[in-house]
């Protein structure tokens, strides 16, 4: 099958609630689509995410139960669970620093990347220490005062950083779903699940956060719940 163009994939994608058990999907292609997901833009290139690819029948049943046995989970051939890992910020910073340093070949290179190294060695650690509640609160007070006299980055609390990490993970999830659509496969992102039970099934640490559960398969006609509805474009498009 010829891969769909970006526009074709966007048009093809629907949230499919019922999958055809007689039409198989290729696990290797799903894995490829997850690789495509990791190419998504991510705040400060920290990539605070992990992707759990569920192919085990038994684990799928457990996850479907934690998703209230909704058809999009119960009939899915495979599941993909994007997980937010804010707790890995220190490791991800180290990885970025190591990558930058590996590209230093000359004194001129060292001069060029000085600012990037400073960003990861000083600015980002200071910001992400705000994942600790009291540190974030103190930082919020400070930036509020700074904002009275200059342009200031204000998203510094634990709640703010949680939003940032979830946005990046959601962008990656969208990459995954578009890549799946390009293969002619279907998906459904689900937010209805018992997060504690699901974390236990996946063996996740306490600080990990589940972004969504994505059902994967090939649609049945009845898996499309009606015509696509969107608010009129004129009501959501604002040109300034």
Features:
single chain, globular, alpha+beta, five-stranded antiparallel β-sheet, 11 helices, 240 residues, NADH Oxidase
Calculate Rg over CA atoms. Answer: 21 Å
CATH architecture of one domain: 3-Layer(aba) Sandwich
**Which descriptor suits the 3D outline?**
globular
Mind describing the biggest β-sheet? 5 strands, antiparallel
Number of strands: 5
Name of the CATH homologous superfamily of one domain? NADH Oxidase
The helix content is 40-55%
The CATH class label of one domain is: Alpha Beta
Question: Which fold name is given in CATH as the topology of one domain?
Answer: NADH Oxidase
C-alpha end-to-end distance: 42 Å
User: Which series of helices and strands comes N to C?
Assistant: HHEHHEHHHHHEHEEH
Low-confidence stretches: none
Output the number of helix runs.
11
Report the β-strand fraction as a percent range. Answer: 5-15%
Determine the mean pLDDT.
96
* Class inferred from helices and paired strands: alpha+beta
Textual characterization of the structure:
The chain has eleven helices and five strands, in the order ααβααβαααααβαββα. It is of the alpha+beta class and 240 residues long. It has a domain at 6-87 and 175-225: NADH Oxidase. Helix 2 crosses helix 9 and helix 5 runs antiparallel to helix 7 (114-128). The chain is globular. The mean pLDDT is 96.
